[in-house]
Amino acid sequence: MELDADMVLAERVRQQLEVFPEKFRELGEGGELRKLCRTPHTLSGPRVDQAREHFTEQYLIEPVLHGLGYFNPISEDYTGTGPHFVRRPSTYRKIEIKRPDYLLKNVSPRIDCILEAKAANEEQLSGAKRHATADIEEYVESNTFAKYLESREKRYLVAIGTDGFRWVLWAKDVRSRETKEAIATVDLSNAIDAIAKRNDVIEGEPTETNVEIRRSLATEFVPAFSARSIDEFVRSYFE
């Protein structure tokens, strides 16, 4: 049976999720990954020989973005056009002192999409530990930012906050200033845990099969966050 477009993207994301556990295997730090998957433990930079946030971006967030259809502009898959990500963009330097961690470009002429990244386990879907959400909220609530986008004939600001495990999406109509908070929230930690167990990076039996992971991604994650559907998903909340 032929897979539909969301299932195809979901399988790509599932494959990209294998990058993160594989890096822990390479480093001999399966125990650190086990803590991340099972507790609120924050990633230890010394354990991974790299700044925590940069490690999370390189081995989790950017691979997932690639699976969602936002290519790294230096990758072989990027042809020079289409959706791609830009690290630390200077696009907004005249209106904002700080810059978002990523700009997701060429998604739609109607939207600007930014992403704020944190180290693994610095974003929980409940409680006070919501550092990525706090950052995107600043952009969404900024009237100066909204006026700038409106002057460029944009309709929506889309802001994604993530620590790689948890993904949150906010949106704002820059004309009416109407804001939609957390219209999509997805936790990938169980999928990462299952993949790590299946690949023998951490001990234990996986609680989800690859088919179940793919189905969950196709239902909950891809429709809201993928390059092919994020525009339609956001517009559906305002129209």
From TrEMBL:
It comes from the Archaea. This is Uncharacterized protein.
